[in-house]
Amino acid sequence: MPRNTAKYLIFARKINGMHQLMSIIHTPMAMIIDPTWIFFVVLVIILFSPILLRRLRTPNVIGLILAGVIIGQHGFDIIERDRSFEIFGQVGIYFIMFLAALEMNMGSVQQYGRKGLLFGIITYAIPFVAAFIASCYLLGFGIITSVLFSCILASHTLITYPIVGRFGLTRHPVVIVSVVATAVALFVALLVSAVTVGAIQETNWFFWLSFAVKCVLYGGFVIYVYPRLGRWFLRRYDDSIMQFMFILSLVFLSAALAELAGLEGLLGAFLAGLTVSRLIPRTSPLMSYIQFVGNALFIPYFLIGVGMLIDLRILISDMHTIWIVVVMVLVGTLSKWTAACIMSRAYPELSGGSLLMFGLTNAHAAGALAIVMIGTDPKVGMMDASILNGTVMLILFSCIISSFATNEGARRLALTEMDTEENQGAWHGKCLVTYSQPDSVKLLTQLALMIRNTHIADSLMGLTVTFNDNDGEADGYREARRLLEEAAEVASSANVDMKTMSRLSTNVAGGILHTIREYDCGEVMVCLTDRTTGMPKSSLGPVIDHVIEGTNREIMAVRMIVPPGTLRKVVVAVPQKAEYEAGFYKWLEHICRMGEQLGCILEFHAHPDTMPNIRVYMDKHHASVRSRYVDMMLWTRIVSLSREVGSDDMLVFITARPGYISYKGSFAGLPLLIYRYFSHTSVMLLYPDQGHD
Q1: Residue 254 included in any domain
Q2: Within 10 A of 206 (CB to CB), how many other CB atoms are there?
């Protein structure tokens, strides 16, 4: 091709692109069909909607839905609701259900599961009965149509769940009960709808038998296989992108299998989140990636897509449809509010949370659409276009009401739950992590992210100390900086800013001790490698020994064999009179934070005189953590723990420094004990805070 011709073609393309741009600018009502422009418009909405609504003090959820109304075919017809909105919208609602389940730990489910089941029944039954009566007597529908109509109002979707995360209430009893109730109400509504349609189509007993068998097989597969498969994969592959794609694959496999079993994909995503929640700590980089991708793209895409379904002209075009909308909104809102009030007054731990419970359980979206599509199917033919239009308007008004209710309810609950003394972190200082071995950087950092105090500035610090002996000084310093960069990267991927420093010193222990005093670090984590425990002597090595002797702050000497997120159980051996040490509740809080983050079992082995202090603290501050309590009369029984722990577990020895009340002479033999009996498991030797330096 001649050179002038090529230049002409390039110039022509630029001119054509400018014409397209000017056409879009001068005709804003025109349909945008180019994928690039569609995605650009969506990103602009996601970007500027929170900025605009923040000034109006309006929840972001409302802005995204209203933006969808404006740009959709029933608004200014700027963008067509094509296949991409269906795909991304489906991913978005799956993400909402998955994140809701992921934020829950199994201890919370066990503790509040019955209350959630009860609330699910109440928040389904009251709207169902109220809607059935209104459908028969106010709208004049038949029995079958009224049943499907009632299922629409009885179900709900966690549209406003992202609002809760901003207030740090995702593991509050009110939220956990509401999330469990959502799954229960949605499942019952879909089941009743299926039974109703089956009765119309005269489905035989074999269909229901096969449906039950498929549900059992599906549930058993996900519950049994997912945790084991997830633990195997996450231990062998530490690449963040691979881990994220693996978890995402599990979610959509569960959703697809749920649909094959005759259930809704929403329930499949929720079940996947419950089963893998133990493998993804809240402070882990993987959790940050999941939350970021969901909240930044997929969930907003879903909300915009919902808005594009809404046609506001319905409110002025058809009086029959308007009457249906009024009945659906009033009955649905009042009945859901009644259910929330009844539940909050029935249990003291839920008192004050009625508004938040109402906000989380009032919004209608995916479940309502699924049921109305069943009713309007030509094969069923029990619902007409007026009910479909009324359902769409119900989605709009219920989402608006729920957004304001959730925002205000979460704000009130956060204010009542706030403990200013705990937030100041008076007795929880900065966590200092010392790095010396390349293979332990990620594991130590992940563990430190779990136990750090999130209420103080610079809560996490990383340190390397390099010998100042001139020989190989440059190489040692470069290696130290590389370790710190890797640690900071792990912390950054979890949205935590880690302050790092590298010291040159002729004494490694001295460099660590100077840093502790200089930055007033409350707890220190050091690496317990095979080189320090592999020698048959009573020593952790000169560096760790000198650090323990040189400070009274809490010291954690850690040897991790597997990633912290894959631990099944944490066994804590507590000596007699440990409750008399100054740092008793401090280390107990750190262990409890691990249990909360990991969702694993905390098993305490302690003397009967010490155990009540542990149980009282757990019941008061960490009741949702799964725990076991085993009396241990003699400290020498810790050897028998070697038969109870494996590579999936972690063993924590609570020790003490010589001269303090809980110190025992046998503590000196712990390094040898670990070498002989516990080489197969992850270990932490914890020296509690024993007074000020």
Answers
A1: yes
A2: 8
Residues 111 and 183 in one domain: yes
**Rg of the chain (C-alpha set):** 29
Q: Is residue 590 part of a domain?
A: yes
Residues 306 and 377 in one domain: yes
- State the pTM of this model: 0.74
* 63-75 exposure pattern, b = at least 16 Cβ within 10 A, e = fewer: bbbbbbbbbbebb
The tokens describing 293, both together, are 């991708």
Residue 159 domain-assigned (yes or no): yes
Q: Is 634 exposed, middle or buried (0-12, 13-18, 19+ CB in 10 A)?
A: exposed
Three-class secondary structure of residue 535 per DSSP: coil
**pLDDT tens profile 526-546:** 988 654 444 444 567 788 888
Q: Say if residue 593 is in the same domain as residue 523.
A: no
307's torsion region: left (phi>0), alpha (psi -120 to 50) or beta? alpha
Cα–Cα distance for residue pair 506/469, rounded to 1 Å: 7
Q: 219 and 266: one domain?
A: yes
Distance of CA 240 to the CA centre of its chain: 17
Mode of pairing for the β-strands spanning 627-631 and 649-654: unpaired
Whether residue 299 contacts residue 382, with contact meaning beta carbons closer than 8 Å, is answered with no
How many other β-carbons are positioned within 10 Å of the β-carbon of residue 657? 18
Task: Mark whether 243 and 377 lie in a shared domain.
Answer: yes
392 and 348 share a domain?
A: yes
The domain of 599 spans: 559-693
Residue 72 has pLDDT above 70, yes or no: yes
Supply 648's token pair. Answer: 């999936």
Residue 540 within any structural domain of the chain: no
Give the model confidence (pLDDT) of 279-331 as tens digits.
888 777 888 888 888 888 888 888 888 888 777 777 677 788 888 889 999 99
| Same-domain pairing of 618 and 475 | no
Place of tokens 């984590």: 525
**Distance between CA 50 and CA 45 in Å, rounded?**
9
DSSP state of 159: T
- What are the pLDDT digits (tens) for 210-225? 888 988 999 899 999 9
Q: ∠ CA 623-642-226 to the nearest 5 degrees?
A: 55
Give the pLDDT band (50/70/90) at residue 570. Answer: very high
Tell me which amino acid residue 290 is.
I
